[in-house]
Amino acid sequence: MANQKETKKEAILKAAKTLFWQHGLRRVSIVEICSSANVSKMTFYKYFANKEVLAEYLITEMLTNWHNDYRSVMNSDLDFTAKINQVIALEQQASQNMSEEFLGDIYNNEFVDLQQLITNYRDSYHAEIVKDMIEAQKSGQVRADIKPEFILYLLEDISKKVMDEKLSKLYPSKQAVILELTNYFFYGIINPANESHV
Amino acid sequence: MANQKETKKEAILKAAKTLFWQHGLRRVSIVEICSSANVSKMTFYKYFANKEVLAEYLITEMLTNWHNDYRSVMNSDLDFTAKINQVIALEQQASQNMSEEFLGDIYNNEFVDLQQLITNYRDSYHAEIVKDMIEAQKSGQVRADIKPEFILYLLEDISKKVMDEKLSKLYPSKQAVILELTNYFFYGIINPANESHV
DNA sequence: GTTTAATTTGACGTTATTCGTACATTTATT
DNA sequence: AATAAATGTACGAATAACGTCAAATTAAAC
Questions:
Q1: Which top CATH class is A1-48?
Q2: Which of A35, A73, A183, B159 is a plausible cystine mate for A86, CB 3.0–4.6 Å?
Q3: What are the residues facing B142 on neighbouring strands?
Q4: From CA A183, how far away is CA A65, in angstroms rounded?
Q5: Interface residue B160 vs chain A (CB under 8 A)
Q6: Is the pLDDT of residue B181 over 80?
Q7: Which nucleotides of C are covered by protein (CB under 7 A)?
Q8: H or E element that contains A172
Q9: Is the pLDDT of residue A71 over 90?
Q10: Which CATH code, of 1.10.357.10, 1.10.3720.10, 3.40.640.10, 3.40.50.2020, is assigned to B50-197?
Q11: What's the Cα-to-Cα distance from B163 to each of A65, A131, A153, A175, B6, rounded to whole Å?
């Protein structure tokens, strides 16, 4: 019954995402989204109050998707190193999903509400990661004398470094960069005592 | 003396090119170009009457660059197959230089003068290519019974096919696609009598 | 150090674009 | 045939972009 409504709404979301990801928020107009989604302007306003609300929807969707992926990784039966590998891969594709153009637009222009939204999600997710790291320390998978927040910092740092062009030039592929970085990461934090047990 | 003028002008051109290539003509404003080039609006109008004239400058630059490259290839001492290989490579990087966003914007919106400019250059270059192909026929490097305009058509067709995603999926890399296409191209047009002479 | 030229700044009126809403019409659904 | 959903057009209001100007600042040249 509400099936075609979903179709229209999804068409708007899909078109908006493509345009926002490519050009950011400021450069894309509502009518542009509508004509790209083959939808009239009124239908747009039936589902979204304005452009910012639509962006809010997309951001929320994206961030909760990330969170679900993260949780399913952390709840899996993989060993800790495999989990972290997966998480790094997630961070990787998440930062690719969130295009520079989109984020830059949000932060360079006066979309304060969206900034706040992202910040809130980030904070909550980061707290969760830290909690997971503390748990990993308790079970002996991570050095006990390392500050959990520092691990979080390292994870973010790795994401940045993967994008670093100077670093990329030292390796044949981005895969190689990631491998090097994760190796470096593990030999720094993995509990040697725990490893020898395996 | 006119050295710093060049610097300012070039800064504008560089910034504009980056922005145009990413977002097209319509989405980019003059003040945006200026602030990206660290130049005031007045300086912009000192060098360019408006946005369209600036785009005209960039397009002309790009197309004449292509032409110079093409001529230096065709005037070289390479044999015919090597020349065509180079030309295909040129077409390749030219279509990458001219971003979809930029060209699409010119043709979807009312930038009629720019459309005309591009068309004129294309026509003139195409005539030149056809002339070169007729020359290649006379010197026995290309089958005499093939229509020169058809060779031009094939060259453009190869450029399109390289971009074709369906085709790309059949090969491990874009290089492999190009190799396959050029091989196909040569075995179709190369004069077997001439080859056996070598 | 003064003069001269180049560049920037801020403001301006004008034009174009975008926004959000309203209503009559058309297109689907049931 | 009746009901609901979606469209197209038009609208005033708000915003953004355009192109121009004179005055102020900075840099270069003498």
A1: mainly alpha
A2: A73
A3: B190
A4: 27
A5: no
A6: no
A7: 6-11, 17-23, 28-30
A8: none
A9: yes
A10: 1.10.357.10
A11: 32, 47, 40, 25, 36
Residue A159: exposure state from Cβ atoms within 10 A (0-12, 13-18, ≥19): middle
Give the residue extent of every domain in chain A.
1-48, 50-197
Work out the pLDDT band at B187, boundaries 50, 70, 90: low
**Three-class secondary structure assignment of A128-152:** HHHHHHHHHHHCCCECCCCCHHHHH
Helices (H), B139-173: 148-163, 165-168
Q: Which two tokens stand for residue A158?
A: 């790795």
Mean pLDDT of A168-181: 72
pLDDT of residue B38: 93
Residue A175: pLDDT band with limits 50, 70, 90: low
Which of B21, B23, B31, B101 to probe the A interface (max A CBs under 10 A)? B23
Burial of B186 (C-beta count, 10 Å sphere; 0-12/13-18/19+): middle
B28 CA from C22 C1′ (Å): 33
